[in-house]
Amino acid sequence: MFSLHGPRRSYVAALGLVATASIVAAGPCDIYSSGGTPCVAAHSTTRALYSAYNGALYQVKRGSDGKTTDIAPLSAGGVANAAAQDDFCANTTCLITIIYDQSGRGNHLRQAPPGGFKGPESNGYDNLASATGAPVTIGGQKAYGVFMSPGTGYSNNAASGIATGDAAEGMYAVLDGTHYNGACCFDYGNAEVSSRDTGNGHMEAIYFGDCTAWGSGSGSGPWIMADLENGLFSGRGARQNTGDPSISYRFVTAAVKGKTNQWAIRGGNAASGSLSTYYSGARPSGGYNPMSKEGAIILGIGGDNSNGAQGTFYEGVMTSGYPSDATENAVQADIVAAQYAVTSLTSGPALPIGTSISLRATTSCCTTRYLAHNSSNTLVTVDGISSSSSSTLKQQATWVVRAGLGNSGCVSFEAWDAPGRYIRHYNFALVLAATDGSKQFREDATFCPQAGLGGGDGGGGPGSVVSIRSWNFPTRYLRHYDNVGYVASNGGVHTFDAAGSFNDDVSWVVGAGFA
């Protein structure tokens, strides 16, 4: 229950609401409704957004048998039942197949279809997100967000009640402020019903990232901006709005709203404090006044299915009507009161930082083979090693565990015999490379160990079994295939993604380093 003291009380008073227990316990969509701008779409994999909602939040599909299950809150208005997901997905991979709309309008988000940009799947659809890539806690209870790698996207091109034309609307999203890139476009909001660019003003969506192709805020980013189609806008006309700050919060509340010749960007720390207004004023010129919104919903992609961006989504809504600042401030207080916090990205056997380890394959064919690198210090391979192997080969199969270069909650693997060179994935193949100082390299070289998906060690002897997923592509795991290392997804489009023996191929016995 929420307290009536502090900023929460003032936000309730500003809305002209009676401070009763029912108001105190209100969720974001209850608050929007009380403010006269009801939710017409409400999406979250972490919690219910109405105080009385106890239906499904999202659906997951497991890789072992293709079965699905819905994940609901632990109680009405509460946090998602992460334990139910963990039980269902034990010893296999799981994807998020549907993010349900809590508004009652049926505006569910599903795998985005091909559009102006085709998705990476063989049928042109976008990828689905890992169900386990974005663990968090809410009020101390575990939940999972939607970790979206490039190529991942969700949409609904036949949504009900979403603003069209120049009609007024608002929206907010809670996002991971540290997970972003400069590609187009990590959006949540209103887009074209055809998944194609149909012209200026045909979109109105929250954008988050550090793309500078159309506009920017102050500093180096990332920024909250608005995707209005054929432009990411931080303000009205100038390419840069210095009043739109770079974001440094781990959890971010991002809000965009628009009505006839008026729109605004607001944002703040989703874990504390209030919202700030980064822009409020007239629409940009050049086809954006009046707007020509079409009323589809997108998540993680642009209106034409531009799917090169990355980001993490926890919750968000779209409203009918232009919410007042007071209503949005009350919603922000509710978000802060939910107490989003980070939790461990790893599980299973510990890989202590600074230790030297070996990684032995567990597949029955290959229990004498270890993850190694070739003599030119470029390719990561899987080589047979025994007590009589050369010291050179043993050194090539020894890895030093380092704190994750892209996220310190995970790990990176430095070659013992080639200091400064790390395992990274490149076009999903594992290579050994020296850091180039880029954010992309750091993220590609970061991996999150978890309990092994395989049930044993292939009969090759004792040891702790781990599976090691890519941090920035969490549907993909470190796998050996034809004696070469890859980051592979379970049943994906590449040959090395083959479902056969997947769990064993991505399970490794951790041993002491040979060197």
From TrEMBL:
GO MF annotations, alphabetized: alpha-L-arabinofuranosidase activity
Alphabetized CDD domains for the sequence: beta-trefoil_ABD_ABFB
Record-listed E.C. numbers: 3.2.1.55
Statement: the UniProt record of this protein carries the keyword Glycoprotein: yes
Protein name: Alpha-L-arabinofuranosidase
Top-level taxonomy: Eukaryota, Fungi, Dikarya, Ascomycota, Pezizomycotina
Catalytic residues (positions): 229 (nucleophile), 304 (proton donor)
InterPro entries: A-L-arabinofuranosidase_B_cat, ABFB, AbfB_ABD, AbfB_ABD_sf, ConA-like_dom_sf
Disulfide bond residue pairs: 29-39, 89-94, 184-185, 410-448
Pathway the protein takes part in: Glycan metabolism; L-arabinan degradation
